[in-house]
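We store sequence with structure; for instance:
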Amino acid sequence: MEHMGLKKSIFFCMTLSNKTNETMDGNWQKIYSNTYEYKVGIVHAVLRDKGITCVVMNKKDSAYLVGEIELYVQADDVLEAKQIIKKESL
């Protein structure tokens, strides 16, 4: 359990679909961000279910509750991911 006042470190939560051995290189692009973790989680789950590899980066400081949670996809998947987000009204 995290203690009040301790800064939450940035973490990566990687969910891979059919791809393996993915690394966080310069080929990732941010396609979505929000201050609410559950909203990013919904977008993440929808994209994952559609076969798109996603990475969630939490930049929120837990002591002050500022910052955003960002969702990244591979550059090749940006257009498809944005279309899914728009179509699903996420």
Q: What stands out?
A: Confidence is low (pLDDT under 50) at residues 1-21. Strands lie at 11-15, 28-34, 54-58, 69-74. Helices lie at 37-49, 78-87.
